[in-house]
Amino acid sequence: MSEPVTSAFDPLREQLAGAAREFGGDAVSALLTGMVDDVDRALREELEIFPVCHHSPASALAMVRRLRDKQPKVIYLELCEDLQPLLTELRNCRLPVAVQAFATHLDGFPQEWAPLSVVAPITEASAEYQAIAYALETPGVELVLVDRSTDHVFQWAEKEDAPEGEHARPQGEEAGLHGDAVGVEIGDLRPRFAELEEHLLHHGKVRHWSEWWDQYVEQPLSGADHDTYRQVMTLIGSLFRRLSRDPARLAADEDRERYMWTRMREHLAATGADPADCLYVCGAFHAASPVEQFGVRSTAPFTITPRTGTTWLYGLIPSSHSAIEAQFGLASGSVSIAAATWAKAVKRDGLTPYRLAGQKGARKAAVRKPAPAPGRGPAADRLTGFLSRPPVLDALDEAELLGWCVDIVRLARRNGYLASTADAIAVFETSILLAGMRGRARPTPYDFQDAAVTCIEKDVVPGRRDVARLCEILLGSDRVGSVGYDALPPLARNVLDRLAPLGLDLEKRTIQRALLDLRADPALGPCSDLLWMLRYLLPPEAVRPIMGERRLGERSIQESWDLALGKHQRSLIELGYDGVTVEQVLEQRLRRRVWAPEATAAVALAAVEDAVLYLGSRRFADELGARAVELLSAERSADDAPEVLRRIRRLLAYYRAHEPELPAWCEEFATAGYAHYCTLLPTAFVDDDTGVRQVGAMLGFLFSMESLALALGCDRAQLELAVRQSHPEAPAKVALLWAARTQLGLLTVAELRERCDELLGNPLVVPSFPQYIMGFVQAMEPVPALSGFVVEVISKAFGRLPDSVLLPWLPKLITTLRAEAAELMPALVREAGRTFPGSLAGVDSWTPPWSSQPAPAPGLVSRPAAAPSGPAAELLSTHRTACDAVAVLLGCEPTWQAAGASPASPAALLLTAHPEPVEALAALLA
Question: Which residues, 6 or more positions from 918, have their beta carbon under 8 angstroms from its beta carbon?
Answer without folding.
Answer: 911
